[in-house]
Amino acid sequence: MSDTLQRLNPIELPDAGKIGYSQISIVEPKRLAFVSGQVAWGADGTPTPTTFSEQTALVVRNLERALEAIGSMPHDIVQMRIYVTDLTDETLSEAMKQLTVFLNGARPSLTGVGVAKLASPDLQIEIEMVVQAA
């Protein structure tokens, strides 16, 4: 992790580290990249997967590609926002299972939001990031 990015989980707040994120991320002045919400659309135009798990996997691949494009790694992610059309314990668990692998020990600040709709009726999950750019 960059020495310009600090993670905090104060004892006065719930221990977010137990489930893989941080309550607070502090970043020193540096370039920031604001990555638009990634959805289950491939660059090659393949059809959107139908299951939540498959959509999450494609979203994670798109997040990986976005990080590669700016020369950053998961430990450079300052904040993530996850939007889910059917936010349940099951969908949250599936999303966090895949994100935990993707984050590989990084613990950005994270917010999960249940929404009525996304950009297309077949989309079930969207994730955006704020990243400390290389």
UniProtKB/TrEMBL annotation:
<protein>
    <submittedName>
        <fullName>Putative translation initiation inhibitor, yjgF family</fullName>
    </submittedName>
</protein>
<comment type="similarity">
    <text>Belongs to the RutC family.</text>
</comment>
<dbReference type="InterPro" id="IPR006175">
    <property type="entry name" value="YjgF/YER057c/UK114"/>
</dbReference>
<dbReference type="GO" id="GO:0019239">
    <property type="term" value="F:deaminase activity"/>
</dbReference>
<dbReference type="InterPro" id="IPR035959">
    <property type="entry name" value="RutC-like_sf"/>
</dbReference>
<dbReference type="GO" id="GO:0005829">
    <property type="term" value="C:cytosol"/>
</dbReference>
<dbReference type="Pfam" id="PF01042">
    <property type="entry name" value="Ribonuc_L-PSP"/>
</dbReference>
